[in-house]
Amino acid sequence: xxxxxxxxxxxxxxxxxxxxxxxxxxxxxxxxxxxxxxxxxxxxxxxxxxxxxxxxxxxxxxxxxxxxxxxxxxxxxxxxxxxxxxxxxxxxxxxxxxxxxxxxxxxxxxxxxxxxxxxxxxxxxxxxxxxxxxxxxxxxxxxxxxxxxxxxxxxxxxxxxxxxxxxxxxxxxxxxxxxxxxxxxxxxxxxxxxxxxxxxxxxxxxxxxxxxxxxxxxxxxxxxxxxxxxxxxxxxxxxxxxxxxxxxxxxxxxxxxxxxxxxxxxxxxxxxxxxxxxxxxxxxxxxxxxxxxxxxxxxxxxxxxxxxxxxxxxxxxxxxxxxxxxxxxxxxxxxxxxxxxxxxxxxxxxxxxxxxxxxxxxxxxxxxxxxxxxxxxxxxxxxxxxxxxxxxxxxxxxxxxxxxxxxxxxxxxxxxxxxxxxxxxxxxxxxxxxxxxxxxxxxxxxxxxxxxxxxxxxxxxxxxxxxxxxxxxxxxxxxxxxxxxxxxxxxxxxxxxxxxxxxxxxxxxxxxxxxxxxxxxxxxxxxxxxxxxxxxxxxxxxxxxxxxxxxxxxxxxxxxxxxxxxxxxxxxxxxxxxxxxxxxxxxxxxxxxxxxxxxxxxxxxxxxxxxxxxxxxxxxxxxxxxxxxxxxxxxxxxxxxxxxxxxxxxxxxxxxxxxxxxxxxxxx
Length: 668
Description:
By secondary structure, the protein is α+β, with helices and mostly antiparallel strands.
């Protein structure tokens, strides 16, 4: 418990009431509140939060069984609470002092004479002009033998206890005719009107007509279920100066204790105008943020499309040139440099899109049974050529305890592993890169990539997994990159529920590791279908693209396999072509002037009898998840991203050649 300063012998009569603003209550109100305390067996306390000074009323001394003025410190006062109630009571007080939360709590208290009493404490907080919690006020009632002498004492005690508890909130009573019969003096601070100006008025004279129906329904429900906690409602009223105010209320039936009949409504009303303004501001900020997110997504989509479109021709035709065997050696070297540069640029684009998806929470995992040992060996083998080109030894170490089959998202794990191994090869001038697979605890795998590179200084290691961060950020750095690879790795590993880190000593190399959950699994009953390398038969294909160079590239990639083609330079042309003759396959671009690929696909599906079932594959630089989903929604069967990888295009054609053959046989 906190230390308490400012201990003294002051009681409420000397300290508490003097510290509170009258708010128009006057000395008569003060006397009535003291009388209510004495008659009802109440005690009041006030805690000054900055100094931790505490003051008690005479009634609180009586509840504790202490002599008036023999004031204990806060820690001693709280120590008298029963051990089973102490933790909650301390927590409520701490939250009131730090967060300004009002609270109600009931505790068992050990009095000075050793007897136990059941007390209820209800507290409210006051803030200073800066908004910090300045004071906590509490009202304590002895519930052990609570019984008021008569209804008049009960009504007086309830009214002025509410005034003490709610501070600037409004205490309101309304009769069954809807007239105000009582409103607390603080109404003048909130609305500018004095109580005398409002008493006797009807509610419909004060409340905005738009909010009256909702309030009427709430009051009806309160009368139908008087024992249920009152629901909350917000409504508008006008300040005396014409400003619009928002008030929050919880109307509840006011019951005659003698007859049990409802005689009106009682309410505690709070001014929430500032909160409503903040809510409107928050909504506006959220809308701005959503607009910014949409703008960012649109920019990334456009950027990806605009870069991938020329890359399709650059990488496609460079790849075709690279496949020719009769180029002069110098031309062959130039072509390979073009291919390499294109792949690097595509890698940057993919990294930006991957990071954007992670940032927006749009990456979904697809865990499947996986042969961990074979998976790691095959993944590492993909980079053997890079290691050999630099004279590095690339080896894989599999722990004998490593499980055979596990449940993992192989695509995402491979993405992380290849990034770490690729970095190790790039930054290592000589020596080796070793990849280790081993179990980690129960149901997890640990993959480690160790290199003999230059190492990383400790002060720089913390920056490695930050977005757009590189250890060597100077303009003359030896290695390129956008600085997103490790940030993407971190995001993917954490998405899978794992962790990632690095250990490195300058001059001795670096070791990157990541751990991912990988529950053991049984081998699937059937092996996955092998990748097909060629279509089963020659197809007649419709190529739809507004750029002639892209149509020429597709033809150049597929003509050696015996396929024949028609071409369309727009969505509308593809629809007309689909009406004239059947096709085994339609390769459809998405972004085209006039009718785009999505509309063209929908139109073909709905109007072309001879191509209604023809496979349609989107061949597009639009690669975001929502764009691919839109393709399927428009009736397309599949999606292939630009730039086009020849092997992927051949496999895609082979994949749908069966569907085309089946459709052709049905048409015949």
